Amino acid sequence: MPHPLDFKGGKNMNFCGYLIVRLKERFPMKNLFYCGVDRLPFWGEGDEDDESPILQKASNKYDENLFTPDESVEFINRYSAAIEILQLLDSMGRDYEIIKCRVDRNVILKEDSDTKKRLGIDIAYFGGDYFSMIYNSFCSETIDDSLQPFFKELNEYGLFNDMGTATRFFNQYNQLESSEEGDFCFYRIETPK
């Protein structure tokens, strides 16, 4: 499996934007929340509200403010647009939050002036359903023995604090016979202003 720094577009592509995701997911084995990208986007709930005018308005606002740096990744390009979408979803009683995501393919993690708090590093599909190696490795009651040491490395947000640990986890995960194959990349997760 190729390293996530070696796919489409080369090593120097960096971009960031906003995602609206469900509120934090709790890991079953520890009083720990997962705050990464693998939290179902608002348009995939499949409930009776999916055809509501409010959800349609939120979807339209999302489409109008879509930033697609690659055909697989769809970020909201402006924080103000993300706030408007979140307010529409809140009016429907849905529990979501905004996260700022930075895809760092060259591993240069610079702080931005518009970042409120850095939560950590996730390793997930490059777009699509944002399948996370981290979340899906640790969301069940049983964790592969070879990954157990990494569970202890997760921070309070269920993410890794540094690229070194994230890279070691990525390499170990890919040695598993049952590992998910896909186009993975490192996401730095932050809270916006």
Descriptors:
four-stranded antiparallel beta sheet; alpha+beta; two-stranded antiparallel sheet; single chain; 27% strand
How would you characterize the overall build of this protein?
By secondary structure, this protein is α+β, with helices and mostly antiparallel strands. The protein is built from five helices and eight strands; from the N terminus they run βββαββαββαααβ. The protein has helices at 53-64, 79-91, 133-138, 148-151, 163-173, and strands at residues 14-22, 25-27, 32-34, 66-70, 73-76, 96-104, 115-125, 184-192. The protein has a four-stranded antiparallel sheet with strand order 1-6-8-7, with helices on one face. Strands 2-3 form a two-stranded antiparallel sheet. Helix 1 (53-64) runs antiparallel to helix 2 (79-91).
Topology:
Elements: E1 14-22, E2 25-27, E3 32-34, H1 53-64, E4 66-70, E5 73-76, H2 79-91, E6 96-104, E7 115-125, H3 133-138, H4 148-151, H5 163-173, E8 184-192
Antiparallel strand pairs: 1-6, 2-3, 4-5, 6-8, 7-8
Outline of this structure?
By secondary structure, the chain is an alpha+beta fold. It has 5 helices and 8 strands.
Spatial strand arrangement across the major sheet? 1-6-8-7
Spans where pLDDT lies below 50 across 5 or more residues: 1-12, 106-111
**Overall outline:** globular
If you average the pLDDT, what whole number results?
A: 77
Intertermini distance: 36 Å
How many β-strands, per DSSP? 8
Largest sheet: 4 strands, antiparallel
